[in-house]
Amino acid sequence: MGQALDDRALDTLFREARSYAKWQQRPVTDEVLRNLYDLLK
């Protein structure tokens, strides 16, 4: 298992982050999707 995130990282990711109102018309590569999945699991 990876390291725990510090409070500053948690602020950046979850407390202060904002979502976008619409999607961009750009494809997402399989590599990016795999990296995101690995990060989230």
The percent of residues in helical segments reads 40-55%
Kindly state the number of beta strands: 0
Question: What series of H and E elements makes up the topology?
Answer: HH
Biggest sheet record? none
Strand content: under 5%
Shape designation: flat
Distance between the termini: 10 Å
Q: What is the mean predicted local confidence, pLDDT?
A: 86
Low confidence ranges:
none
Please identify the structural class as seen in this structure.
mainly alpha
Helix tally? Answer: 2
* Rg calc: 13 Å
Mind sketching the topology for me?
Blueprint: H1 7-15, H2 30-40
Detailed description of the structure:
This protein has helices at residues 7-15, 30-40. Helices cover 49% and strands 0% of the residues. The longest helix has 11 residues, at 30-40. The protein is built from two helices and no strands. It is flat and about 35 Å long. The termini are close together. The model has no long low-confidence stretch (mean pLDDT 86).
In short:
The chain has two helices and no strands.
Q: What are its keywords?
A:
41 residues; mainly alpha; flat
